[in-house]
Design a protein that fits this description.
This is Putative transcriptional regulator. It holds the Pfam family HTH_3. One of its GO terms (molecular function) is DNA binding. Keywords: DNA-binding. This protein is mainly alpha-helical. It has one domain: 434 Repressor (Amino-terminal Domain) (Orthogonal Bundle), CATH 1.10.260.40. It has six helices and two strands; from the N terminus they run H-E-H-H-H-H-H-E. It has a two-stranded antiparallel sheet. Helix 3 crosses helix 4.
Length: 80
Amino acid sequence: MTLKEDFDDYIKNKVYEHRVLRKMSQKELADSVGVSKQTIFVMEKNNYSPSLVLAFRIANFFGVDVNEIFSYVRKDEKDD
């Protein structure tokens, strides 16, 4: 059994909400934090968990605490 099979947790995010409030495109945000547009796209779909550095970079860009944008979801919390 691999780690992925043992743990079905992930990082939930509100990147989309913050980006839309700023009236920014995915490309504009990507350029601002040093990643590709594709990275922002998959992150907003919760198909990619950013590194800690990228998570903090995004939070700092929006001027908020990292916990306001990113939250840890455990397998047993998904049904809530």
